[in-house]
Amino acid sequence: MTMTTARAEDDGNRALVGDLHEQRGPELYGFARRLGLSPDTAADAVQESLLRLWATLDSGASVARPDAWLFRALYRICMDHHRWSRRASGLVARLLSRPTAPPETPIADRLTVWDAVDRLPERQRLIVYLRYRADLPYVEIGSVLGINPVSARSQISRALDRLGELLSREDFR
């Protein structure tokens, strides 16, 4: 492929994504809002789906129905956001010893928890991230870290105990 052909293809991809944003943007945004995202998060999710389409087209992949592809990608992005929010809420609830967390944990609480996670030893940081951010089961965590799943479960328990200690300290309030 010549440089001119590559440039023309890139311009064509840019135009396609731009046209789809112009034609389907309000529908995509409405879809994200209907899936329960806040206005700002919905706008970000729409942008993310457009970027993913552009990256897919830029990689040379053929997309038969780009508009349908966008809605499917946006749906997945929204579900990922909800999954992450549930996990973060569950982690905050467990660390703060509340039996149930409210449906949406305030961002300040989530940031405080992840700030505390950053203060854990490296192995514990990794294991908390893999479990609660990457949403991996213990078997896969063990595979990633080269330990058995029982050890992964045990280490996450110790990490959560340590997080509870960190969060109960005065400097985290």
Secondary structure elements and pairings:
Elements: H1 3-34, H2 39-58, H3 66-95, H4 107-118, H5 122-133, H6 138-145, H7 149-168
Helix pairs in contact: 1-2, 1-3, 2-3, 5-7, 6-7
What does this structure look like?
α1 (3-34) runs antiparallel to α2 (39-58), α1 (3-34) crosses α3 and α5 (122-133) crosses α7. The termini are far apart. The radius of gyration is 21 Å and the shape is elongated. It has helices at residues 3-34, 39-58, 66-95, 107-118, 122-133, 138-145, 149-168. It has two domains: 3-84, Rna Polymerase Sigma Factor, Chain: A (Orthogonal Bundle), CATH 1.10.1740; 106-172, Orthogonal Bundle (Arc Repressor Mutant, subunit A). With 173 residues, it is mainly alpha-helical.
Give short descriptive properties of this protein.
173 residues, mainly alpha, Rna Polymerase Sigma Factor, Chain: A, Arc Repressor Mutant, subunit A, 2 domains, 7 helices, elongated
What can be said about this structure in brief?
77% of the residues lie in helices and 0% in strands.
Q: What is the CATH fold-level name of the largest domain? A: Rna Polymerase Sigma Factor, Chain: A
Distance between the ends: 59 Å
CATH classification, class level of the largest domain: Mainly Alpha
C-alpha-based Rg, rounded: 21 Å
Output the helix-strand order: HHHHHHH
Task: Give the number of DSSP strands.
Answer: 0
Biggest beta sheet summary: none
Q: Give the structural class.
A: mainly alpha
Mean pLDDT over all positions:
82
Number of domains: 2
CATH architecture heading of the largest domain: Orthogonal Bundle
Helix content: over 70%
Strand content: under 5%
Number of helices: 7
Question: Which regions are unreliable across 5 or more consecutive residues at pLDDT < 50?
Answer: none
What global shape is seen? elongated
